[in-house]
Write a structure and sequence with these properties.
There is one protein chain. The protein has 379 residues and is mainly beta. It has two domains: 1-36; 39-378, Porin (Beta Barrel). 12% of the residues lie in helices and 56% in strands. The chain contains three helices and 18 strands. Strand 17 (342-355) and strand 18 form a beta hairpin.
Length: 379
């Protein structure tokens, strides 16, 4: 009997050794495959003060200072792709993107995870790296959820990107996504958090169709569409109104065009909100657009200006759920690039329409100063 038990112990011990050996071999193979791939790490740093020509009672705080550190890591090995982005700032800490991709064909890539919504074009090209974009501020309809944005800019689920070659080197790009939509929190939209999955999120779908006259160039024009089921999660204004959720539809177009020393980036979006109350459904709509023009004064100097306008803000129940919205604005700025991948930007603007918790249409001036840079590593 003792011999039998000893044999059993030896058998179990042998199995453990085999399991450990297999696990170590698998870990070695994964680490070896990981080391054989291509790695890229980008560290974006930015910071600077903001001055608002208002008092806290009639608008945002008179002055503020923001500093950001944005880390973007990407990995490529054959058809497998991975991208992660984490933002650490004076206002938030968040895992912004975390997605795994597989290149099924030469021009088709599928992703799963958390990503930027394809229907927000500005965010698709600039992301969270302030150094990438010329201006300091973002247009109203392109703001991230936690910066006053009222349209979903993050989604968690599945995304498919494909390209089709047309005649004369032109191309058509299609990006589609389906996943979890943000919820309407107390002061902002709150995207699905991969590190905290407690909230009950609805669904969202986004489409971007882009025409490129030259597939190797930067110029493009496109159509954007999105649908989102936005549930209420702790927004007191919505609860007082008896609002249970908002079904949001958007359709818009954009143009990103460059010639000689000029660049034009513009977009116009129509938003249809179906406000679902306990006993009825109310419809409110608004249209928001912007036009940003940039001119290269010199190799290191860029002068830019932007006009933003939003209609029907007075009658929109949905917009009243979000405090501190800059709906209409005129912007003028100057950017200076110096040293190695560093920029200093000065931006002044006139806020034409500000929607706060208790006030609306307070006109005031705004001055922003920002230093930004990027440190790239590839191995």
């Amino acid at each position: 009997m003792l011999e039998h038990e000893a044999e059993n112990h030896m058998t179990i011990y042998s199995r453990h050794r085999i399991a450990i050996a297999i696990a170590l071999m698998a870990l070695f193979n994964v680490s070896q495959a990981w080391s054989e791939g291509q790695h890229e790490l980008l560290l974006f740093l930015s910071g600077g003060p903001t001055y608002n020509e208002v008092t806290p009672e009639s608008g945002p705080d008179g002055s503020d200072f923001a500093a950001d550190a944005d880390v973007v890591y990407s990995y490529l090995n054959g058809r497998f792709k991975f991208l992660g982005e984490y933002l650490l700032s004076t206002h938030e800490n968040e895992l912004e993107r975390f997605k795994l991709g597989w290149q099924a064909e030469a021009e088709t890539i599928g992703w799963i995870g958390r990503f930027h919504s394809p229907s927000r074009y500005w965010n698709s090209i600039y992301h969270h790296g302030q150094y990438l974009q010329t201006s300091i501020s973002r247009p109203f309809i392109e703001e991230f959820e936690d910066d006053g944005g009222v349209l979903p800019t993050h989604s968690t689920g599945f995304m498919l990107e494909s390209s089709n070659e047309l005649k004369l080197s032109a191309g058509l790009q299609t990006t589609f996504s389906f996943g979890a939509a943000p919820v309407i929190g107390e002061h902002e939209l709150e995207p699905f958090d991969l590190l905290n999955t407690d909230s009950d999120h609805g669904a969202a779908a986004d489409i971007r169709l882009a025409f490129l006259p030259d597939q190797l160039g930067d110029n493009q024009a496109g159509l954007i569409l999105s649908w989102a089921d936005l549930k209420i999660d702790g927004n007191h204004t919505a609860e007082q109104l008896g609002l249970q959720r908002v079904e949001q539809y958007t359709i818009g177009a954009y143009l990103d065009w460059r010639w000689t020393d000029w660049k034009i980036l513009t977009s116009l979006v129509y938003v249809n909100n179906q406000d679902k109350l306990q006993t009825q459904t109310l419809k409110d709509t608004f249209v928001s657009g912007y036009l940003q023009a940039e001119y290269n004064l010199h190799q290191d100097w860029i002068l830019y200006g932007r006009l933003e306008e939003t209609s029907n803000t007075d009658s929109s129940i949905y917009l009243k759920l979000f405090p501190n919205i800059i709906a209409d604005r005129q912007v003028l700025g100057l950017r200076f690039d110096f040293a190695r991948s560093q920029a200093l930007t000065l931006e002044v603007s006139r806020v034409i329409e500000f929607i706060g918790a208790e006030t609306q249409k307070d006109e005031f001036g705004q001055v922003l100063l920002q230093w930004s840079t990027v440190f790239p590593w590839t191995w």
